[in-house]
Design goal:
71% of the residues lie in helices and 0% in strands. The chain is mostly helical.
Length: 284
């Protein structure tokens, strides 16, 4: 009995030493202190959203709803500031909401294996509560809604927005792990001013090209959003061998500083967009 107890104590001490060593390695690599997960953060305590089994709510959870809603409201607001009629601004909002929802579902489908391996919380596709087939079906239905919805404000404008969504989906698959991960974000965001400026009402509507400065700033905004979103997955991405720019900077300056700088950068671009838009307008 005494030998068994001593052996158990040695095993406990070895585990504690291993955990301490891992924490020290984390501190050195990310330049910030490692926080031991609390009981409420344990994977064994998924919370209410982790126990949901209702498919509509699971689809909502997998849609990256916060980003979709914020982006849609922002685009609808820009349409209002550009003095577009209320019905056009409403269509813009709905179009962007559907497009962003598609991107969220597709991202979670692509990341299923990674999210499962890293036990990423609130990922119903990865944890098996939502069948990937159901998510693909939802994407197809949403795409059938998005096409006529997008061309309601003009075929040219609608085609531009559909291309931006396709670029976003492509970005979920390629370039995202390397240095040029920001390219698809810049390209898809940079097309949004053209979607607004060419828009009108009816399939034959044709507006004007967007201001070059607005397009450049929108692309820069996409890069900022990319950096802000990347911060939350730096540890998992590093473990998977990714080499994209946000991760390289995060390893140099720490995740907290990276989040602060990327947030400051993004806010600055938003302010610049407002100033340039007010002074020169959206369209040429």
């Amino acid at each position: 009995m005494g030998v068994d107890r001593d052996q158990e104590e040695l095993e406990v001490e070895a585990e504690a030493a291993g955990a301490a060593e891992a924490a020290e390695e984390y501190d050195e690599e990310y330049d910030e202190e490692y926080d031991e997960p609390t009981e409420s953060e344990s994977p064994d305590s998924p919370g209410f959203l982790g126990r949901v089994r209702w498919t509509p709510l699971l689809l909502f959870q997998a849609a990256h709803a916060k980003q979709a809603i914020v982006t849609a409201l922002a685009m609808g607001g820009v349409a209002v500031l550009a003095k577009r009629p209320a019905e056009e601004a409403g269509v813009v909002l709905l179009t962007v909401l559907v497009g962003q929802t598609i991107l969220g579902w597709h991202n979670d489908i692509v990341d299923k294996a990674r999210d499962e391996a890293h036990q990423t919380p609130r990922k119903p596709i990865a944890d098996g509560r939502l069948d990937p087939g159901a998510a693909w079906y939802a994407i197809i239905v949403a795409a059938l809604i998005l096409v006529p919805l997008s061309i309601t404000t003009g075929i040219t404008a609608g085609a531009i927005y559909l291309v931006s969504v396709c670029v976003g989906m492509l970005g979920n698959v390629i370039l995202r792990t390397g240095f040029f991960s920001w390219v698809t974000w810049a390209f898809s965001f940079g097309m949004l001013p053209a979607y607004l400026s060419y828009g009108g009402w009816g399939g034959q509507a044709l507006g004007e090209p967007p201001e070059t400065a607005i397009t450049i700033l929108a692309a820069m905004l996409g890069i900022g959003v990319h950096f802000m979103r990347a911060v939350w997955g730096l540890v998992a991405d590093h473990e998977d061998g990714w080499t994209y720019l946000p991760l390289k900077l995060g390893l140099k300056i720490g995740a907290t500083r990276l989040l602060a700088l990327s947030t400051l950068y993004t806010v600055g671009i938003v302010v610049a967009l407002g100033v340039v838009g007010y002074n020169v307008g959206l369209s040429q």
